[in-house]
Amino acid sequence: MNRKTLVLPAVVGLLAPVLAACGGSGSGGNSGDAIVVGTTDGFTASKDAPAPFDPAYAYDVGTWNVLRQTVQTLMVQPRGDGDPQPEAAESCGFTDSGNERYACKLREGLKFASGDPITAKDVKFSIDRAMAIKADSGVFALLSTVDTVEAQGDREVIFHLKSADATFPFKLSTPVAGIVNPKDYDKGKLRDGFQVDGSGPYTLEADVKNDAAVKMVFTKNPNYKGLLKPKNDKVEMRSFASADAMGAALDKGDIDLMTRSMTPEQIKKLGNLGTDGNIDLVEMPGLEIRYLGFNTDDPSVKSKAVRQAMAEVINRGDLVSKVYGSQAEPLYSLVPATITGHSNSFFNKYGDPSVARATTTLSKAGITTPVKLTLHYTTDHYGTATKQEFEVLKQQLNATGLFQVDVKGTPWETFRPAEQKGKYQVYGMGWFPDFPDADNYLAPFLDKDNTLGSPYVNTKIRGTLIPDSRREADRLTASRSLTEIQNIVADDVPILPLWQGKQYIAARDDITGAEWALNSSSTLQLWELGRGVGG
Questions:
Q1: For residues 49-61, b (16+ Cβ closer than 10 Å) or e, as one string?
Q2: Is residue 228 predicted with pLDDT exceeding 90?
Q3: CA dist list (Å): 71 to 93, 235, 407, 437
């Protein structure tokens, strides 16, 4: 089969998903009527992270993609992106001219999957709970502008904000604002394990082995009432140890679709195969970024001259070409090029890579060379290409003679807690936005209670520029403040952006809706998937 479809998203400037037929074999998933989805995301409960699926804790794209199917939010990002729309609510909006009072009215007859009615008090409980627990994942910071939540009667919820926040409707579409039942979730502590109880389009049953959820079955929730229209009754998600194992399962017909994270080699192979097969590769709008983070309190990188010198010699074009090819593009800001408010601040400051400029930067600061550093990365969270990426970075930095770099890979369940505790000098991370706005590429890293646990503080960014940008409902008008933030980051280099990438799905050609199964923020939308006729 040879298919190409073009779906224009509502967010201006984003790439459109393109679906092209590729080769494959097999006869489809083997789990009855369930559509079987493969992923390399791991879901592990550990001493450091005992509650991976609690909305008050979860803060990575994998766990959020579980919660978005099961825990309902007041707002939701619609098909094709665009402004969020009411979901558990029938209406929401600012009720004052200063964007500081936001009111929602719940849908009539809203119920949890258990059949218990949902009231405004449950919404208040859920938001208050996430803010009170203050999980070390930092997800509660998305609600940092909330002062108080008021429940009026059974269906009215009013959010009183500390300061204007034009991005607040987007934040109410994220899982941290998910509505949970007080019968199932304790007000003062996280819910350990893999149980999820909500009012979303699906219920969840997890198959757990050795403290890891290896299979999750999503079954259509008969009590669901909201904006979404599930096109299937059941979806099974299987977690694979590697992209190669996931790809083999797709080839054999054990799964119907695979998503993050495929390897660059898999994507290239699928894209180059003939048009007579029955697996389709879908290229989706991508707002994923990768970056290096710094523990700015660590003696080795405390001087911004060291961080600036790294920015002056890292060759993003060479890195992308050697590791990701056409699947990524160099990035010169924390804000991707397709987001309103983007500025090429790093390129404007540092230009093309230059060892001579870096030598001068270090010399003026009195830094003895070579600077010894260890670059840490996670071995199992962003795909197998991460190791190659860090080998290229090591080669680039060591070739200058200014740095003596080692690299070290660690599994995510160990890597993430260690990074948050400040145990790494330099570390590699990725970011899939909570919502497609420049604020969500800046505040989570630079504001108080940031998700990285970074010691870096810039009082102008926190006290003036972030609040100023949030006052502007017109995001073009906010660009002045957003650009200044990006310029400060380029000068201080608490974070060094590397590249932004596309995203892909490979699906058997009898699966419909694959082109809508991921939005630009990498939100997995299982309700869009259906089963048709292959050809």
A1: bebbbbbbbbbbb
A2: yes
A3: 21, 16, 39, 23
Could you tell me which residues come within 8 angstroms of residue 70 by beta carbon, excluding any fewer than 6 positions away? 196, 198, 200, 202, 203, 204, 218
Structural contact between residues 441 and 432, judged by C-beta atoms closer than 8 angstroms = no
Please say whether the beta carbons of 198 and 180 come within 8 A. Answer: yes
Of 286, 283, 267, residue with least CA distance to 522: 286
Q: In what order do the strands lie in the sheet with 146-152?
A: 89-94, 101-106, 156-161, 146-152
Q: For the packed helices 304-313 and 385-399, what is the interaxial angle rounded to 10 degrees?
A: 100
How far apart, in Å, are the Cα atoms of 388 and each of 174, 303, 311, 431? Answer: 32, 28, 19, 19
Kindly indicate the confidence band of residue 80, based on its pLDDT and cuts at 50, 70 and 90: low
Give, in order, the Cα–Cα distances in Å from 378 to each of 241, 315, 408. 14, 21, 8
Residue 384: predicted pLDDT: 87
d(CA 207, CA 10): 37
| Ramachandran area for residue 248 (φ above 0: left; ψ -120 to 50: alpha; else beta) | alpha
* CA-closest candidate to residue 88, choices 100, 101, 71: 71
SS (H, E, C) 342-407: CCCHHHHHHCCCCHHHHHHHHHHCCCCCCEEEEEEEECCCCCCHHHHHHHHHHHHHHHCCCEEEEE
Output the DSSP codes for 125-148: HHHHHHHHH--TT-GGGGGTTEEE
Instruction: Give dist(CA 428, CA 291) in Å, integer.
Output: 6
Assess contact for 62 and 212: CB atoms under 8 A.
Answer: no
- Mind giving me the DSSP string for 311-333? HHH--HHHHHHHHTGGGEEE-SS
pLDDT digits (tens, 9 = 90+) for 388-397: 999 999 999 9
Q: Is residue 5 scored above 50 in pLDDT?
A: no
Report the C-alpha gap between 142 and 140 in whole angstroms. Answer: 5
pTM score: 0.87
Contact of 476 with 469, CB cutoff 8 Å: no
On whether the CB atoms of residues 365 and 357 are closer than 8 A, the answer is: no
Residues 170-187 have pLDDT tens digits of 999 999 999 999 999 999
**Number of neighbouring beta carbons within 10 Å of residue 511:** 24
Is the pLDDT at 31 greater than 80? The verdict is: no
CA angle centred on 371, ends 369 and 374, rounded to 5°: 160
pLDDT tens, residue by residue, 115-160: 999 999 999 999 999 999 999 999 999 999 999 999 999 999 999 9
Q: Are 246 and 39 in contact (CB under 8 A)?
A: yes
Helix residue ranges per DSSP H, 2-116: 61-70
- Integer-rounded Cα radius of gyration of the chain: 23
CB count within 10 Å of CB 95 equals: 11
Indicate the pairing of strand 371-378 with strand 75-76.
unpaired
Instruction: List pLDDT tens digits, range 97-127.
Output: 888 999 999 999 999 999 999 999 999 999 9
Give the per-residue pLDDT at 338: 87
